[in-house]
What we know:
Blueprint: H1 2-17, H2 24-28, E1 32-35, E2 45-49, E3 54-59, E4 64-74, E5 79-84, E6 99-106, E7 110-117, E8 121-129
Antiparallel strand pairs: 1-2, 1-8, 2-3, 3-4, 4-5, 5-6, 6-7, 7-8
Amino acid sequence: MKKYIFGFLLSGVILFGTGCLGSTEDYLQTGTWKRYNMSTYMHDIEFNFNANGTVIFKNITASVVDTGTYQAIAGGEHNFLELLGMPSVTGQIPNSYDGKWTIIRMSESAFAISIHKEGYGVLYHEFINI
């Protein structure tokens, strides 16, 4: 009996400890995500996530359009959004979105991510689905 209880508890820890992406990738691929600007000094940024793992990056302010890759990753307490191949844009904060961002919130209409970037500290960005 004890080995069944131990097995049940171990299964529960593994199941709930590895995280779950849920509908994260489905939400990301639903349209154009525009960064919510809290300051007139911030650049207008948009992302379009595709099912093939690519993301179209648009910096409307600096007229920059480029393609990178993304991956949604399940973690223990948080899920992550890893962005690679993002362009560096002068005056943009951060100058490049490359890195492993923590997903703070995710829904059909909005998501929020944060990251610690050297030279910037902890950055927090919210995006709305337009």
